[in-house]
Description:
5 helices, 5-stranded mixed beta sheet
Amino acid sequence: MTQMESIVRIATMRDYQEVLRLFLQSHQENGQFSLAPDKLHWLLSRLLAPEAIPEDDMGLRGIIGVIGKEGALEAICGVCISDLWYTHEKHLGDFLVFVDPEHRHTEHAKTLITWMKLQADIIGIPLMSGVVTNHRTEAKCRLFRRMYPKVGELFLYQPMEYKLTAGSSRSNLTAH
Length: 176
């Protein structure tokens, strides 16, 4: 297998199945809550075909960056324009940085983070990024600490009753 150069391109609807595959892999490895297939499909439709969003629709806007050829994606990232509860100032919030396990020997993760920073530079707003996972957490955090200034940490408490009921609602969505 030849190694693909780490070059990020903007994903389009032609990438839908591969983008879905990587999102599902990421959820399988990193998801903290059950998957909502309708919400995922809505998100992908908006981000992969922004031209289809009505002009008067003021909802979510973002972009998905991918590494790899159409039909054979190796890595993915995504950012959306967002704001925090206490301000009207916008920022880019990352919601995904994921490298297919077959391609983790590459520089893809660093390239994706650099690309997200470039997107923030282009539109002139800050990028807020983080690690939410229970898989290889420390290694991922080390990478992010090398790439970003640290502004906090994230913690998750789940009441026992939630743990018992949430697992039973996990979706079995698959990429076809």
